[in-house]
Amino acid sequence: MGNALTDRQRKYCHAIVQGQSAASAARTAGYSRASSNNQGSRLGKNADIQAEIARLKSKAVQKSEAGAILSALEVRQRLTSIAEDEENKPQDRIRALELLGKTLGLFADKPALEVNVTLQALQDATYEDLKELEARLVGSST
Question: Cα angle vertex 33, ends 79, 42, to 5°?
Fold first, then answer.
């Protein structure tokens, strides 16, 4: 790396490696909510930061290969702990509950909508036919 990273940049790198989005990682690193999208994008393009993220990811892979990865039970326990700790920020508690719900399969995904229409059928369709198809598609996606 060319330059030493600042504390904020190191925090950003750790947050990225933990799976946060660029904007969220920027907020975690101490950047304001108003500038987090721009800062996250800017930081993600920095060569020194990219190198540090790669180093941290490599280190994480080495740890996981050594058996240091958390079990599903440990992840659930940690998420539950975060969600129940009233000293945590409300948004952190809510996020922990969302992730816990996902790990437990509590949120049903919307079923995929399959549409089989030939090109010829679309070419032959009238405006009214297309409006009816649109209404059916929009109605089934809600």
Answer: 100
Q: pTM for the whole thing?
A: 0.46
Phi-psi region of 29 (alpha: psi -120 to 50; beta: other; left: phi over 0): alpha
Q: Render pLDDT for 33-91 as a digit per residue (tens, 0 to 9).
A: 999 999 999 999 999 999 999 988 888 766 665 555 566 777 888 888 899 988 989 99
Amino acid, single-letter form, for residue 54: A
Residue 15 · residue 44 · CB < 8 Å: no
Nearby residues of 2 by Cβ (< 8 Å), 6 or more positions away: 47, 48
Alpha carbon separation from 56 to 17, 83, 89, 137 (Å, rounded): 7, 27, 26, 45
Q: Which residues contact 82 (CB under 8 A, 6 or more apart)?
A: 88, 92, 93, 96
Sign of CA dihedral 47, 50, 52, 58: negative
